[in-house]
UniProtKB/TrEMBL annotation:
Gene Ontology molecular-function annotations: sigma factor antagonist activity
Keywords: Membrane, Transmembrane, Transmembrane helix
InterPro entries: FecR (IPR006860), FecR_C (IPR032508), Ferrdict_sens_TM (IPR012373)
Residue intervals passing through the bilayer: 81-102
Sequence ranges assigned to domain FecR protein in this UniProt record: 168-264
Chain ranges of the Protein FecR C-terminal domain: 300-369
Full protein name: FecR protein
One Pfam family in the UniProt entry: FecR_C
Domain of life: Bacteria
Gene3D superfamilies assigned to the protein according to its UniProt record, in alphabetical order: 2.60.120.1440, 3.55.50.30
Length: 371
């Protein structure tokens, strides 16, 4: 299992949002000696983030355990965190992260966002339009669907509908959903996005889908039938790999980020940790931090971007809110840090307000941004 999937499962575990299948994968990881170093590294990163936490808000036992973990890390001692104290560590991580982000790091002068004006995060929401024009609302209690040539089922096996032909799965603002296509390819669909495909998938020798919005793909290997994604003037062709495409209409460029394998974008070959930027007919490539680019798929907001409006567009899609900019609002902001997408919007905005350079006024689903 690659490290991005391990990190995803780790974050899902901390958020207590593992599906039944993910729980089984997580259990296997915890009992796999070969993965211990990776898992220890994840925990070490968590402790590092917590280093400046205000321990006075913890019980004496919690503070003592925290100090012993950090001290041991500093002295280079080997700590066998997994699986002996995995549950203790995870439980403490939730406490410590909360203290770190919402008590210690935030400056005293940060203005409070009134709780009654808070906005809940997005969730599993989607619809599927069938070949006959019928539209079905997919269950919010399920995280995804499995498509084959003749039917659509939830990932727990329960039937959605018998159907063939062209289908489109769409998420609204504030929605996300997972799709397993008939060839085994897995797709994570972000908010305000849609994926169109033929149930059997294979047409004219290739597996072809159309994307609007953003999706992360783990493409099943098939050397004979290439997998093709068409989106906003670009054609991405792969045989089997992991990549992310962001092709929102309100963004100036289409971004394709490769995590492993290789992809062909129009006439360009992309390598791992590279991202293509398509604007009109202009196609460029740059090196990127893939962790930041797929943070949404892992259930996180990572604040490394300095374009405030780009960050706010991501927030607006996930929380389904309208953003209004005052003339005083800054164009550039780099707050740093991260926060789970499972938090209410106030938790996200407080981290940004902690810079002292921006303020948010929340009125229902309208957010006004000022200096």
């Amino acid at each position: 299992m690659d490290q991005n999937n391990i990190k995803y499962l780790h974050q899902q575990y901390l958020n207590d949002t593992l599906t039944e299948a993910e729980s089984a994968d997580w259990e296997r990881l915890l009992n796999d000696p070969a993965q211990e170093e990776v898992l220890k590294s994840l925990m070490a990163m968590t402790w590092q983030e917590m280093r400046s936490a205000d321990l006075k808000d913890m019980s004496a036992d919690q503070a003592d355990l925290m100090e012993r973990f950090i001290t041991a890390q500093d002295q280079g001692r080997t700590i066998r965190l997994w699986p002996r104290i995995a549950m203790v560590a995870a439980a403490l991580a939730l406490i410590f992260v909360g203290v770190y982000f919402f008590k210690s790091v935030l400056q005293p002068e940060v203005k409070n966002i009134v709780a009654r004006n808070d906005v809940s995060p997005g969730s599993n929401k989607a619809t599927i339009r069938l070949a006959d024009g019928k539209t079905i609302s997919l269950s919010g209690s399920k995280s995804g669907v499995v498509v084959d040539r003749s039917k659509i089922a939830y990932n727990d096996g329960s039937l959605v509908q018998h159907s063939i032909g062209v289908q489109t799965i769409s998420t609204p603002r504030g929605g996300t959903y997972q799709i397993t296509l008939s060839d085994g390819t897995r797709v994570w669909l972000n908010a305000a996005s849609s994926l169109t495909y033929v149930a059997g998938l294979n047409e004219k020798g290739e597996r072809s889908v159309k994307l609007n919005g953003e999706a992360y793909f783990e493409v099943a290997k098939d050397k004979i039938h290439p997998f093709v994604v068409e989106s906003r003037g670009q054609r991405v062709e792969v045989l089997g790999t992991h990549f992310n495409i962001s092709s929102y209409e309100d963004e100036s460029v289409v971004k394709t980020t490769l995590l492993e394998g290789s992809v062909k974008i129009n006439d360009l070959i992309l390598k791992p940790n590279e991202q293509s930027l398509l604007s009109g007919n202009d196609l460029k490539v740059r090196q990127v931090d893939t962790e930041n680019e797929i943070a949404w798929k892992n259930g996180e907001f990572i604040f490394k971007e300095d374009d405030l409006r780009a960050t706010m567009r991501k927030i607006a899609r996930w929380y389904d809110v309208e953003i209004i900019y005052d003339a005083s609002a800054p164009a550039v902001l780099t707050p740093g840090g991260w926060v789970s997408r499972s938090k209410n919007i106030s938790a996200v905005l407080k981290i940004m307000e902690a810079t002292g350079k921006v303020h948010f006024k929340v009125e229902g689903r309208r957010i006004t941004v000022t200096k």
